[in-house]
Amino acid sequence: MGAYILRRLLLIIPTLLGIMVINFALVQFVPGGPIEQIIAEVQGQGDVFQGIAGGGGEVAGGGSDEYAGARGLPPDFIEELEREFGFDKPPLERFLSMMWNYMRLDFGDSYFRSISVIDLVLEKMPVSISLGLWSTLIAYIISIPLGIRKAVKDGSSFDTWTSGAIIVAYAIPGFLFAILLLVLFAGGSYWQIFPLRGLTSDNFAQLSWPAKIADYFWHIALPVFASTISAFATLTLLTKNSFLDEIKKHYVMTARAKGLTEGRVLYGHIFRNAMLIVIAGFPAVFIGVFFSGSLIIETIFSLDGLGRLGFEAAVARDYPVIFGTLFIFGLIGLVVGIISDMCYVLVDPRIDFEKREG
Protein backbone atom coordinates (compact mmCIF):
# COMPACT_ATOMS: atom_id res chain seq x y z
CA MET A 1 0.00 0.00 0.00
CA GLY A 2 2.87 2.34 0.77
CA ALA A 3 4.36 1.97 -2.73
CA TYR A 4 0.94 2.55 -4.29
CA ILE A 5 0.37 5.75 -2.28
CA LEU A 6 3.85 6.96 -3.24
CA ARG A 7 3.10 6.39 -6.94
CA ARG A 8 -0.22 8.22 -6.62
CA LEU A 9 1.47 11.13 -4.88
CA LEU A 10 4.07 11.33 -7.64
CA LEU A 11 1.32 11.24 -10.28
CA ILE A 12 -0.15 14.39 -8.73
CA ILE A 13 2.71 16.40 -10.24
CA PRO A 14 2.10 15.64 -13.97
CA THR A 15 -1.68 15.66 -13.48
CA LEU A 16 -1.70 19.06 -11.82
CA LEU A 17 0.79 20.35 -14.38
CA GLY A 18 -1.48 19.19 -17.20
CA ILE A 19 -4.48 20.94 -15.64
CA MET A 20 -2.55 24.18 -15.33
CA VAL A 21 -1.08 23.97 -18.88
CA ILE A 22 -4.48 23.42 -20.49
CA ASN A 23 -6.18 26.24 -18.60
CA PHE A 24 -3.27 28.64 -19.10
CA ALA A 25 -3.25 27.93 -22.83
CA LEU A 26 -7.01 28.46 -23.10
CA VAL A 27 -6.80 31.79 -21.30
CA GLN A 28 -4.34 33.07 -23.93
CA PHE A 29 -7.13 32.93 -26.54
CA VAL A 30 -9.89 34.43 -24.41
CA PRO A 31 -10.48 38.13 -25.19
CA GLY A 32 -10.90 40.73 -22.48
CA GLY A 33 -7.88 40.27 -20.22
CA PRO A 34 -6.99 42.48 -17.24
CA ILE A 35 -5.35 45.10 -19.45
CA GLU A 36 -8.54 45.38 -21.50
CA GLN A 37 -10.45 45.74 -18.23
CA ILE A 38 -8.24 48.67 -17.21
CA ILE A 39 -8.49 50.24 -20.66
CA ALA A 40 -12.28 50.04 -20.58
CA GLU A 41 -12.34 51.64 -17.14
CA VAL A 42 -9.95 54.40 -18.21
CA GLN A 43 -11.89 55.12 -21.40
CA GLY A 44 -14.99 55.57 -19.31
CA GLN A 45 -13.26 58.08 -17.04
CA GLY A 46 -11.82 60.66 -19.45
CA ASP A 47 -11.10 63.36 -16.86
CA VAL A 48 -9.20 60.95 -14.66
CA PHE A 49 -7.14 59.69 -17.59
CA GLN A 50 -6.27 63.23 -18.67
CA GLY A 51 -4.48 63.65 -15.37
CA ILE A 52 -2.73 60.30 -15.72
CA ALA A 53 -1.62 61.08 -19.27
CA GLY A 54 0.07 64.22 -18.02
CA GLY A 55 -0.93 67.78 -17.24
CA GLY A 56 -4.45 67.71 -18.55
CA GLY A 57 -3.15 68.19 -22.08
CA GLU A 58 -4.24 66.43 -25.22
CA VAL A 59 -4.07 62.65 -25.06
CA ALA A 60 -1.57 61.11 -27.43
CA GLY A 61 -3.08 58.96 -30.12
CA GLY A 62 -2.15 55.57 -31.39
CA GLY A 63 -2.26 53.16 -28.48
CA SER A 64 -1.60 49.50 -29.08
CA ASP A 65 -3.31 47.60 -31.87
CA GLU A 66 -3.08 44.46 -29.74
CA TYR A 67 -5.84 45.58 -27.38
CA ALA A 68 -9.39 46.28 -28.44
CA GLY A 69 -10.49 49.73 -27.33
CA ALA A 70 -6.93 51.02 -26.82
CA ARG A 71 -7.17 53.59 -29.61
CA GLY A 72 -6.44 57.05 -28.30
CA LEU A 73 -4.28 55.84 -25.41
CA PRO A 74 -0.53 56.54 -25.36
CA PRO A 75 1.71 53.53 -26.06
CA ASP A 76 3.73 54.28 -22.93
CA PHE A 77 0.62 53.83 -20.83
CA ILE A 78 -0.11 50.44 -22.43
CA GLU A 79 3.49 49.32 -21.98
CA GLU A 80 3.38 50.33 -18.31
CA LEU A 81 0.25 48.25 -17.84
CA GLU A 82 1.93 45.28 -19.52
CA ARG A 83 4.93 45.55 -17.21
CA GLU A 84 2.70 45.88 -14.16
CA PHE A 85 0.70 42.76 -15.00
CA GLY A 86 3.70 40.84 -16.34
CA PHE A 87 2.44 40.65 -19.92
CA ASP A 88 5.66 42.11 -21.30
CA LYS A 89 7.12 38.58 -21.10
CA PRO A 90 6.40 35.63 -23.43
CA PRO A 91 3.59 33.25 -22.33
CA LEU A 92 5.99 30.36 -21.69
CA GLU A 93 8.17 32.47 -19.41
CA ARG A 94 5.09 33.72 -17.54
CA PHE A 95 3.80 30.17 -17.09
CA LEU A 96 7.10 28.80 -15.82
CA SER A 97 7.48 31.73 -13.42
CA MET A 98 3.92 31.20 -12.16
CA MET A 99 4.44 27.47 -11.56
CA TRP A 100 7.76 28.09 -9.81
CA ASN A 101 6.02 30.53 -7.47
CA TYR A 102 3.19 28.06 -6.88
CA MET A 103 5.66 25.31 -5.96
CA ARG A 104 6.96 27.68 -3.28
CA LEU A 105 3.35 28.34 -2.19
CA ASP A 106 3.60 31.92 -3.42
CA PHE A 107 0.29 32.62 -5.19
CA GLY A 108 0.79 36.35 -5.59
CA ASP A 109 -1.72 39.14 -5.11
CA SER A 110 -5.07 39.80 -6.71
CA TYR A 111 -4.92 42.22 -9.64
CA PHE A 112 -7.88 44.26 -8.49
CA ARG A 113 -7.91 43.80 -4.71
CA SER A 114 -5.27 44.84 -2.21
CA ILE A 115 -4.92 41.34 -0.78
CA SER A 116 -2.94 38.20 -1.50
CA VAL A 117 -4.64 35.21 -3.12
CA ILE A 118 -4.08 33.04 -0.03
CA ASP A 119 -5.61 35.64 2.29
CA LEU A 120 -8.51 36.07 -0.12
CA VAL A 121 -9.18 32.31 -0.19
CA LEU A 122 -8.92 32.06 3.60
CA GLU A 123 -11.34 34.97 3.92
CA LYS A 124 -13.95 33.19 1.78
CA MET A 125 -13.25 29.68 3.09
CA PRO A 126 -15.61 29.65 6.13
CA VAL A 127 -18.68 29.95 3.91
CA SER A 128 -17.63 27.17 1.56
CA ILE A 129 -16.52 24.93 4.43
CA SER A 130 -19.88 25.44 6.10
CA LEU A 131 -21.81 24.56 2.95
CA GLY A 132 -19.58 21.72 1.77
CA LEU A 133 -18.85 20.03 5.09
CA TRP A 134 -22.35 20.07 6.53
CA SER A 135 -24.04 19.26 3.23
CA THR A 136 -21.81 16.23 2.66
CA LEU A 137 -22.08 15.07 6.27
CA ILE A 138 -25.88 15.36 6.37
CA ALA A 139 -26.20 13.66 2.98
CA TYR A 140 -24.20 10.65 4.16
CA ILE A 141 -25.85 10.46 7.59
CA ILE A 142 -29.34 10.38 6.06
CA SER A 143 -28.73 8.65 2.73
CA ILE A 144 -26.81 5.58 3.89
CA PRO A 145 -29.34 4.38 6.52
CA LEU A 146 -32.22 5.28 4.19
CA GLY A 147 -30.61 3.45 1.28
CA ILE A 148 -30.03 0.36 3.42
CA ARG A 149 -33.63 0.43 4.63
CA LYS A 150 -34.91 0.75 1.05
CA ALA A 151 -32.76 -2.22 -0.02
CA VAL A 152 -34.06 -4.39 2.81
CA LYS A 153 -37.67 -3.32 2.10
CA ASP A 154 -37.27 -3.45 -1.68
CA GLY A 155 -40.68 -3.44 -3.40
CA SER A 156 -42.60 -2.49 -0.25
CA SER A 157 -44.81 0.57 0.16
CA PHE A 158 -41.98 2.24 2.13
CA ASP A 159 -39.62 1.77 -0.80
CA THR A 160 -42.21 3.08 -3.26
CA TRP A 161 -43.15 6.33 -1.54
CA THR A 162 -39.57 7.14 -0.51
CA SER A 163 -38.43 6.59 -4.11
CA GLY A 164 -41.13 8.99 -5.28
CA ALA A 165 -40.00 11.61 -2.76
CA ILE A 166 -36.36 11.15 -3.76
CA ILE A 167 -37.13 11.51 -7.48
CA VAL A 168 -39.09 14.70 -6.83
CA ALA A 169 -36.27 16.08 -4.68
CA TYR A 170 -33.72 15.27 -7.37
CA ALA A 171 -35.83 16.84 -10.11
CA ILE A 172 -36.15 20.19 -8.32
CA PRO A 173 -33.23 22.50 -9.28
CA GLY A 174 -31.17 23.61 -6.31
CA PHE A 175 -31.67 27.31 -7.00
CA LEU A 176 -35.45 26.88 -7.26
CA PHE A 177 -35.56 24.99 -3.98
CA ALA A 178 -33.42 27.70 -2.37
CA ILE A 179 -35.84 30.41 -3.53
CA LEU A 180 -38.75 28.34 -2.22
CA LEU A 181 -37.09 28.11 1.19
CA LEU A 182 -36.54 31.86 1.24
CA VAL A 183 -40.16 32.56 0.35
CA LEU A 184 -41.50 30.16 2.96
CA PHE A 185 -39.14 30.57 5.90
CA ALA A 186 -37.04 33.74 5.46
CA GLY A 187 -39.57 36.54 5.46
CA GLY A 188 -41.02 36.07 2.00
CA SER A 189 -44.77 35.66 1.87
CA TYR A 190 -45.09 33.39 4.91
CA TRP A 191 -42.84 32.95 7.98
CA GLN A 192 -39.81 34.88 9.22
CA ILE A 193 -38.03 31.99 10.93
CA PHE A 194 -34.53 32.06 9.44
CA PRO A 195 -32.28 35.01 8.49
CA LEU A 196 -32.26 36.17 4.90
CA ARG A 197 -28.50 36.57 4.38
CA GLY A 198 -25.05 36.14 5.86
CA LEU A 199 -23.23 33.45 7.82
CA THR A 200 -23.58 35.12 11.23
CA SER A 201 -25.46 38.00 12.85
CA ASP A 202 -24.04 41.52 13.11
CA ASN A 203 -23.61 41.15 16.87
CA PHE A 204 -21.89 37.77 16.58
CA ALA A 205 -18.73 38.94 18.38
CA GLN A 206 -20.72 39.99 21.45
CA LEU A 207 -22.54 36.67 21.82
CA SER A 208 -21.60 33.92 24.27
CA TRP A 209 -20.19 30.66 22.88
CA PRO A 210 -23.49 28.74 23.07
CA ALA A 211 -25.25 31.68 21.44
CA LYS A 212 -22.57 31.85 18.72
CA ILE A 213 -23.05 28.17 17.89
CA ALA A 214 -26.82 28.58 17.77
CA ASP A 215 -26.52 31.72 15.63
CA TYR A 216 -24.17 29.96 13.20
CA PHE A 217 -26.47 26.97 12.67
CA TRP A 218 -29.47 29.32 12.47
CA HIS A 219 -27.88 31.10 9.51
CA ILE A 220 -26.61 28.05 7.58
CA ALA A 221 -29.76 25.93 7.99
CA LEU A 222 -31.48 27.00 4.75
CA PRO A 223 -28.41 27.15 2.44
CA VAL A 224 -27.17 23.76 3.67
CA PHE A 225 -30.62 22.25 3.19
CA ALA A 226 -30.82 23.67 -0.35
CA SER A 227 -27.35 22.41 -1.34
CA THR A 228 -27.91 18.95 0.19
CA ILE A 229 -31.08 18.00 -1.65
CA SER A 230 -29.55 16.71 -4.92
CA ALA A 231 -26.61 14.91 -3.29
CA PHE A 232 -29.03 13.31 -0.83
CA ALA A 233 -31.16 11.83 -3.62
CA THR A 234 -28.22 10.49 -5.63
CA LEU A 235 -26.45 8.94 -2.64
CA THR A 236 -29.60 7.23 -1.35
CA LEU A 237 -30.27 5.43 -4.64
CA LEU A 238 -26.58 4.57 -4.97
CA THR A 239 -26.56 2.98 -1.52
CA LYS A 240 -29.77 1.06 -2.17
CA ASN A 241 -28.60 -0.39 -5.49
CA SER A 242 -25.23 -1.33 -4.02
CA PHE A 243 -26.83 -3.22 -1.14
CA LEU A 244 -29.32 -4.92 -3.45
CA ASP A 245 -26.46 -6.27 -5.56
CA GLU A 246 -24.73 -7.69 -2.49
CA ILE A 247 -27.88 -9.15 -0.90
CA LYS A 248 -28.39 -11.43 -3.92
CA LYS A 249 -24.90 -12.98 -3.73
CA HIS A 250 -24.15 -16.52 -2.51
CA TYR A 251 -22.13 -15.56 0.57
CA VAL A 252 -25.22 -13.84 1.98
CA MET A 253 -27.27 -17.01 1.53
CA THR A 254 -24.49 -18.99 3.22
CA ALA A 255 -24.39 -16.60 6.17
CA ARG A 256 -28.15 -16.85 6.63
CA ALA A 257 -28.01 -20.65 6.37
CA LYS A 258 -25.53 -20.66 9.26
CA GLY A 259 -28.23 -19.08 11.42
CA LEU A 260 -26.81 -15.58 11.69
CA THR A 261 -29.25 -12.82 12.55
CA GLU A 262 -30.38 -10.46 9.80
CA GLY A 263 -28.58 -7.58 11.47
CA ARG A 264 -25.33 -9.56 11.66
CA VAL A 265 -25.64 -10.55 8.01
CA LEU A 266 -26.45 -7.01 6.94
CA TYR A 267 -23.85 -5.08 8.91
CA GLY A 268 -21.25 -7.80 9.47
CA HIS A 269 -21.01 -9.13 5.92
CA ILE A 270 -22.91 -7.04 3.36
CA PHE A 271 -22.02 -3.58 4.68
CA ARG A 272 -18.30 -3.65 3.89
CA ASN A 273 -18.73 -4.84 0.33
CA ALA A 274 -21.72 -2.62 -0.42
CA MET A 275 -20.04 0.50 0.94
CA LEU A 276 -17.16 0.30 -1.54
CA ILE A 277 -19.07 2.04 -4.32
CA VAL A 278 -20.39 4.64 -1.89
CA ILE A 279 -16.85 5.41 -0.74
CA ALA A 280 -15.73 5.62 -4.36
CA GLY A 281 -18.27 8.38 -4.93
CA PHE A 282 -17.20 10.41 -1.90
CA PRO A 283 -14.57 12.61 -3.64
CA ALA A 284 -17.02 13.59 -6.38
CA VAL A 285 -19.79 14.34 -3.87
CA PHE A 286 -17.51 16.32 -1.57
CA ILE A 287 -15.73 18.32 -4.25
CA GLY A 288 -18.99 18.93 -6.12
CA VAL A 289 -20.84 20.28 -3.09
CA PHE A 290 -17.79 22.10 -1.73
CA PHE A 291 -16.87 23.99 -4.87
CA SER A 292 -19.02 23.50 -7.97
CA GLY A 293 -22.50 23.83 -6.58
CA SER A 294 -21.96 26.76 -4.26
CA LEU A 295 -22.18 29.76 -6.63
CA ILE A 296 -25.96 29.90 -7.02
CA ILE A 297 -26.62 29.04 -3.36
CA GLU A 298 -24.14 31.69 -2.21
CA THR A 299 -25.74 34.28 -4.47
CA ILE A 300 -29.31 33.54 -3.38
CA PHE A 301 -28.46 33.58 0.32
CA SER A 302 -25.99 36.51 0.02
CA LEU A 303 -23.02 34.43 1.19
CA ASP A 304 -19.52 35.50 0.19
CA GLY A 305 -17.73 32.22 -0.45
CA LEU A 306 -15.40 30.55 -2.93
CA GLY A 307 -18.13 30.12 -5.53
CA ARG A 308 -18.70 33.85 -5.88
CA LEU A 309 -14.97 34.49 -5.63
CA GLY A 310 -14.29 32.25 -8.63
CA PHE A 311 -17.10 33.78 -10.65
CA GLU A 312 -16.07 37.36 -9.92
CA ALA A 313 -12.42 36.54 -10.69
CA ALA A 314 -13.40 35.04 -14.05
CA VAL A 315 -15.52 38.06 -14.96
CA ALA A 316 -12.77 40.52 -13.95
CA ARG A 317 -10.01 38.36 -15.53
CA ASP A 318 -8.21 38.34 -12.19
CA TYR A 319 -5.66 35.74 -13.31
CA PRO A 320 -3.76 35.31 -10.01
CA VAL A 321 -7.04 34.41 -8.28
CA ILE A 322 -8.18 32.17 -11.15
CA PHE A 323 -4.97 30.16 -11.45
CA GLY A 324 -4.15 30.23 -7.74
CA THR A 325 -7.52 28.77 -6.74
CA LEU A 326 -7.35 26.30 -9.65
CA PHE A 327 -3.99 25.04 -8.39
CA ILE A 328 -5.13 24.82 -4.76
CA PHE A 329 -8.46 23.11 -5.45
CA GLY A 330 -6.99 20.82 -8.09
CA LEU A 331 -4.42 19.67 -5.56
CA ILE A 332 -7.12 19.15 -2.94
CA GLY A 333 -9.20 17.08 -5.37
CA LEU A 334 -6.27 14.82 -6.24
CA VAL A 335 -5.38 14.30 -2.58
CA VAL A 336 -9.00 13.48 -1.72
CA GLY A 337 -8.90 10.81 -4.44
CA ILE A 338 -5.92 9.17 -2.73
CA ILE A 339 -7.70 9.32 0.63
CA SER A 340 -10.67 7.61 -1.00
CA ASP A 341 -8.43 4.72 -2.10
CA MET A 342 -7.10 4.41 1.43
CA CYS A 343 -10.67 4.17 2.67
CA TYR A 344 -11.20 1.26 0.28
CA VAL A 345 -8.54 -0.72 2.12
CA LEU A 346 -9.89 0.24 5.54
CA VAL A 347 -13.38 -0.94 4.60
CA ASP A 348 -12.22 -4.11 2.83
CA PRO A 349 -8.66 -5.27 3.69
CA ARG A 350 -8.83 -7.84 0.87
CA ILE A 351 -8.24 -5.04 -1.65
CA ASP A 352 -4.60 -4.73 -2.65
CA PHE A 353 -3.97 -1.95 -5.16
CA GLU A 354 -0.35 -2.98 -5.66
CA LYS A 355 -1.31 -6.47 -6.85
CA ARG A 356 -4.07 -5.03 -9.03
CA GLU A 357 -1.58 -2.74 -10.75
CA GLY A 358 0.92 -5.58 -11.12
Blueprint (SSEs and pairs):
Layout: H1 2-27, H2 34-43, H3 46-54, H4 75-85, H5 91-103, H6 117-152, H7 157-171, H8 174-185, H9 209-247, H10 250-257, H11 262-280, H12 282-292, H13 294-300, H14 306-316, H15 319-347, H16 353-357
Helix pairs in contact: 1-15, 6-9, 6-12, 6-15, 7-9, 8-9, 9-11, 10-11, 11-15, 12-15, 13-14, 14-15
Strand-residue proportion: under 5%
Mean pLDDT across all residues, rounded?
Answer: 78
Find the structural class using helix and strand composition.
Answer: mainly alpha
Provide the CATH architecture of the largest domain.
Answer: Orthogonal Bundle
Order of helices and strands: HHHHHHHHHHHHHHHH
CATH class of the largest domain: Mainly Alpha
Oligomeric category? single chain
DSSP E strands, number: 0
Helix content: over 70%
Main sheet, how many strands, which sense, barrel? none
What is the overall shape? globular
- The termini sit apart by 12 Å
Radius of gyration: 27 Å
Q: What is the overall number of helices? A: 16
Query: In CATH, what is the homologous superfamily of the largest domain?
Result: MetI-like
Look up the CATH topology of the largest domain.
MetI-like fold
Number of domains: 2
Low-confidence stretches: 46-65
Keywords: Cell inner membrane, Cell membrane, Membrane, Transmembrane, Transmembrane helix, Transport
Transmembrane segments: 9-30, 129-148, 160-186, 216-239, 274-301, 321-347
Family: Belongs to the binding-protein-dependent transport system permease family.
InterPro entries: MetI-like (IPR000515), MetI-like_sf (IPR035906)
